[in-house]
UniProtKB/TrEMBL annotation:
InterPro entries given in the database record: Cu-oxidase-like_N (IPR011707), Cu-oxidase_2nd (IPR001117), Cu-oxidase_C (IPR011706), Cu-oxidase_fam (IPR045087), Cu_oxidase_CS (IPR033138), Cu_oxidase_Cu_BS (IPR002355), Cupredoxin (IPR008972)
Chain coiled-coil ranges: none
GO MF entries: copper ion binding; oxidoreductase activity
Protein name: FtsP/CotA-like multicopper oxidase with cupredoxin domain
PANTHER family found in the cross-reference section: FI03373P-RELATED, MULTI-COPPER OXIDASE
Keyword terms of this UniProt record: Copper, Metal-binding, Oxidoreductase
The keyword NAD appears for this protein: no
SUPFAM superfamilies membership: Cupredoxins
Plastocyanin-like domain residues: 49-158, 177-256, 318-424
Repeat found in the keyword field: no
Amino acid sequence: GGMNGHEHGTVHGATSTGLQPSLSCEAIIAKAGEEPVHEIQLTAAQQVTKLDNGQIEEVWAFNSLTPGPEIRVTEGERVRVVLKNTDIQEGVTVHWHGIVLPCSQDGVAGVTQEAVKPGEQFTYEFIADHPGTYWYHSHQASSVQVEKGLLGKLIIEPLTNRFEYDQEETVLIQELNGTMLMNGSTQGVDIQASPGQTLRLRMINAANETEMIRVNGATFRIIAMDGHDLHEPEMLEHHQFQVAAGQRYDLLLQMPRQGKVIVESESGLKAALGSGNDPEPRSDYTLFSWTDYGTPDPLAPVENLTFDQSHTLELGQNLFVKSINGKSFHEIPPIVVKEGQRVKLTIINEGGGDHPFHLHGHIFQVLSRNGQPLSGSPVFLDTLATQEGETYEVYVKADNPGLWMMHCHNLMHASMGMSMMFNYE
Ligand code: C2O
Ligand code: CU
């Protein structure tokens, strides 16, 4: 009982199509090992919070905070998180967005575990294999629980850095009960930085809508998307870029000799880096294009790939139902793969807004956009930004057995049906 993961997370959809998975996630756990253990406790509870503009909000928070505590671990560590639920009646889980981990630890209520009820607890354990910028959020009725505040930052620091920098900061954008916040503030954040320093800025979009981000006052490079380094990213100036819901962008900024850098979102949130004079306001930003940024990596060629399976997913809507191939979650047959298969997904945004397409437990490589192969750096993502009319092809290596969700990360859309399963036989 208790499988009320409604939009996310119920295996009922799969059952009703006669394709009940033969595999269960419970048995799939992290192997025992000698890694150093990084242990954290997350306690979910209801509370009343006053925002920095005086607004009073009823929120659901981890450890009395929203965003919850930043989890920062080192590559290779064993992460152990004890989740407790104080008083959230419908139960909570934690999903580790972007992390490739054993299926049983994926935190999807109704699929990989039962939601954790008040007074109960659940312990997650996984190895932080891949350094990068990630986040975590509840995956029980997630369209409600994420907006109420059950989310936080998750950073895996690399053992050795591919890029050098003096300092790093992380900003997370969320929509709390309708109010846009950056690191919990309605205004934004001030970040201390000295002239000449190189700063790594990790940006996480935990809201439901795409955010256009503008950087003014410094040249910068985009060094990673969804936690995966880009190959030879070139310097950008007066650029704006779109971070879709669920995505992360890492920037490397050179602080100017004098004055500030302003990193501003279209929704009005601002990260002010450094001190001194504000840069001159501008309007002439070039839109960053990630499909031809950086240079191809000779070690990651895709030209000659062959696939064991190919699927087309049309993201759109029927009346008010957000759909995949014209169907909503409970009717969509899962994609069923075998371990080791190479799978090509063609993802078409047929309308109804931006649809950031998210796959759990895997990293996929983007092959093409609107029929054009990517010409810059290889791009590895867990969340693909798609806009109306666009078509993308992506390559998924089926290398992590389990039952995995795929859904739009506009969590409202996911709850309206734009979700399906990617299952192993
Ligand atoms: Cu970030 Cu299924 O979610
Ligand atoms: Cu969508």
